[in-house]
TrEMBL record:
<keyword id="KW-0411">Iron-sulfur</keyword>
<dbReference type="GO" id="GO:0016829">
    <property type="term" value="F:lyase activity"/>
</dbReference>
<dbReference type="GO" id="GO:0051539">
    <property type="term" value="F:4 iron, 4 sulfur cluster binding"/>
</dbReference>
<keyword id="KW-0408">Iron</keyword>
<feature type="domain" description="Fe-S hydro-lyase tartrate dehydratase alpha-type catalytic">
    <location>
        <begin position="11"/>
        <end position="278"/>
    </location>
</feature>
<keyword id="KW-0004">4Fe-4S</keyword>
<protein>
    <submittedName>
        <fullName>Fumarate hydratase</fullName>
    </submittedName>
</protein>
<keyword id="KW-0456">Lyase</keyword>
<keyword id="KW-0479">Metal-binding</keyword>
<dbReference type="InterPro" id="IPR004646">
    <property type="entry name" value="Fe-S_hydro-lyase_TtdA-typ_cat"/>
</dbReference>
<dbReference type="Pfam" id="PF05681">
    <property type="entry name" value="Fumerase"/>
</dbReference>
<dbReference type="InterPro" id="IPR051208">
    <property type="entry name" value="Class-I_Fumarase/Tartrate_DH"/>
</dbReference>
<comment type="similarity">
    <text>Belongs to the class-I fumarase family.</text>
</comment>
<dbReference type="GO" id="GO:0046872">
    <property type="term" value="F:metal ion binding"/>
</dbReference>
Amino acid sequence: MRNLDVNEIKNAIKTLVVKANQELSTDILNALKVAANYEKSEVGKKILQRVIENAQIAKDEELPICQDTGTAVIFLEIGQDVHLVGGNLHEAINQGVREGYTEGYLRKSIVKDPLNRINTGDNTPAVVHIDIVPGDRVKITVAPKGGGSENMSQLKMLKPADGVEGVKQFVIDTVRQAGSNPCPPIIVGVGIGGTFEKAALLAKKALLREVGSQNPDPFYNSLEKELLEKINNLGIGPQGLGGRVTALAVHIETYPTHIASLPVAVNLNCHVARHETVIL
């Protein structure tokens, strides 16, 4: 059994929320550069070049990549041989978010109640997902999620008879209906299976995959490529102003499901697909 003080988790999250908001990951930057070369629309090409330039300025000057610094979505994989000491885990997580967003001068975007709409003033509470895994380490992934792309996400309980064609149509329709709102080029996370809430979580986790990585399942790898091609053929283009590059990637995650069910969730992310990870 290994003891780990929750203060270490707090400090890690404080650092990660700032870094995630200031530094676009290498896989996204590389995908944007490829997209800028591939895009035929002159307007679209200029937009992609500005997006790349913006990311470099943000990193160099330690500024947020986007003014919407997002909901702090935190994924924890806690080894079953870890004993957390020194306080309450959730309090430590939120303190890390609080300090990071305040000291890092990041926009505070969370309201205490969804209808009364009073800002909490420190971007807490975080949305936290915890998995217990083998081992004695704690893996922390911070994934700030902007409101514009999140608002365009959808979930649908398809009938099993709808099959793969129904899934394709729902994913494509979701992107088409979203149009320019999620600030394309986007990353498309798709969760298939499980239950109503499991499909949504799968779609969220799909956004954490490295852009350009291959799905290990040949069937879903092929489906991802097909969906990406169809989405880019919609012609929405960078920032919705037309072009060949509407999405940088489609990532699919699946889970076993009930014989009567076919849940499908589509979680859209703008090109600022922020996530940073550390292992303690």
